[in-house]
Specification:
This protein is α+β, with helices and mostly antiparallel strands. The protein is 37% helix and 20% strand. Strands 1, 2, 3, 4 and 5 form a 5-stranded antiparallel sheet that branches.
């Protein structure tokens, strides 16, 4: 589990990025410790993106949500943490996306467990989906492990 202050900048050549992508394609359990990575072609970024999932075995520090999402090509359930892609300049971009956080807030709101008004509820969902510094640190850390595996 990476700490929030550990968020390096990654600048990869096309060959280096392709090696990372190939490693992610190598098998469903490439990271082999409870974290999962999948590939997805994005219309938004027009790039191949790496999609990262956490499980109870490997999750961001302070994680407080259930693991309810089906991880593609796996029998394991996990939680989507975010995505990474390489931009035209070679810089790897990261985005935390936490549907589990939004689902938890929505469940509380819909059940009446929270006393949020609708505007506050929408703001809470928007903030929760972006995650915490620990979520971003985890995403960077798992990408870093994948990058190291790609040169072995």
């Amino acid at each position: 589990m990476a700490k929030a202050e550990e968020t390096p900048n990654w600048n990869l050549s096309t060959a280096q990025w392709n090696a990372v992508v190939r490693r992610a394609q190598a098998g469903p359990d490439t990271l082999a410790d409870g974290a999962f990575v999948r590939l997805e072609d994005s219309a938004e970024t027009e790039q191949t993106e790496l999609i990262f999932f956490a499980t109870a075995l490997n999750k961001p520090l302070g994680w407080g949500y259930p693991f309810l999402e089906d991880i593609p090509r796996s029998r394991t359930r996990g939680a989507l943490i975010g995505r990474a892609w390489r931009d035209a300049a070679g810089s790897v971009q990261f985005e935390v996306v936490l549907p589990a956080a939004a689902q938890a807030i929505a469940a509380d709101y819909e059940s009446g467990a929270s006393d949020l008004d609708f505007v506050t509820y929408e703001q809470a969902v928007e903030q929760a989906v972006r995650g915490t510094p620990n979520d971003l640190a985890w995403l960077h850390g798992e990408f870093g492990r994948l990058a190291v595996l790609s040169v072995e």
